[in-house]
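Curious: why this fold?
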Amino acid sequence: MSKGRGTGDGGGCPPPPETRPARVAVLLSGRGSNFVALADGCARGEVPAEIVLVLSDRPDAPGLARARERGIPTRVIPRKGLGQQEQERQMVAAVRAAGTEWVCLAGYMRILGAEFVAAFPERILNIHPALLPAFPGREAQRQAFEYGVKVSGCTVHLVDAGCDTGPIVAQRAVPVLDDDTTETLAARILEQEHRAYAEALRLLLTRGWHVEGRRVVFG
């Protein structure tokens, strides 16, 4: 069980005493479809949060335009010319300047360094398109399809210093059909990602929870 903010002996967080929306920053490198799902969930009142910053390492990331369309502030901090350590120091500063309480990764295609993770302990969330611990890393859908599994899915987890190794918050299963291709399987997994991410963030913000081993326990 890991120690963290929110309780005296078990990490995690007690039930929130207020209804003020949590301030969330989103990190992305690509099209940002999971960011859109989170933003839509917030706009509908399903997730008690407000996305206050979208941060990218790529100036051409389509997700930035989708954030601007919604009136959400954006920032680009590329790694090129800075190196990982300086880039992530600037990222930490930007996220803190926005008054962020949670950081959600939505297709951010870099492994966060220990300094960034330590700046937001048990407050960084990621979604992965496979049932972890199976098929971590990139192209997880292809890994699962080529391995021959009958069931894949997606995992929402807290982020630690490893690659897709943090405590699991939620998972959704997706059957692999006999006539599937990598592309059709990935599309069906993505549909579940959009549902699972918003639901997992809602649970973390509205219920007491703590970490036991490699999973998040609610209540």
User: Anything to note?
Assistant: The beta strands are 22-28, 49-56, 74-76, 102-105, 124-128, 151-158, 168-175, 209-212, 215-218. The helical segments are 33-43, 62-69, 83-97, 114-119, 140-147, 182-206. Residues 125-219 form a domain with the Rossmann fold fold (CATH 3.40.50.170).
